[in-house]
Write a structure and sequence with these properties.
Low-confidence stretches: none
Number of helices: 5
Shape: globular
Oligomer: single chain
Largest sheet: 7 strands, mixed
Length: 160
Amino acid sequence: MMEEAFPKEEIRTYEGQLALLENPYYWLKRKLDDQGRLIAFMAVWEFEDFCFVEHLAVSRQARGNGIGGQMMQEYIRQSVRPVILEVEPPETDICKRRIAFYQRLGFQLNDFEYQQPPMREGHGWYPLMIMSFPGSLMKQEFEPMKRRIYREVYRVPEAK
C-alpha cells in the first residue's frame, strides 16, 4: 500500500520500516475492512511538544470513502500537541488535491522551504512543504521541530 501511495523518495525499505516499530516515539494506526484486510494506515511520531504524521495511506480499493479524512480527524481531535506533516509542492493536480484535503481538515500550508532527507540509500534530499495544525508556523518556530524530525525520524545530524 505504501509503494502505491507514495513516491519511492518518500518511503523506506521494508527492513527500514520494520525497524521503526521498536522506536517508542513511532506508532501505526491501522484500519481494517470487514474481512480483516488492511485498507488504511497512519504512521505517526509523537514527541513531547509536537506530533509528526509521516504517512497516511488508503488502499486504492477504499479511496474516496472518507476513510483517510476520518482517521486524521480522529487523530487531531485527540491530540493536545501541534500536528505537522510533509506534502509535495502544489505543482501537479494530485499534489494540489492532497494539500486541499489537509486544508479541509484544518491544516495550514506553511510558506518556507523544507527538504526531506533521503529515505533510502542512493536518493538525495527531496523538496517538500510543511503543513501544520491547528495553525500555521513561523519558520523560527518550526526550526526546533525540524531538527528533531531530522535527528529522530531521518537519522541525519544536520538540518538543511
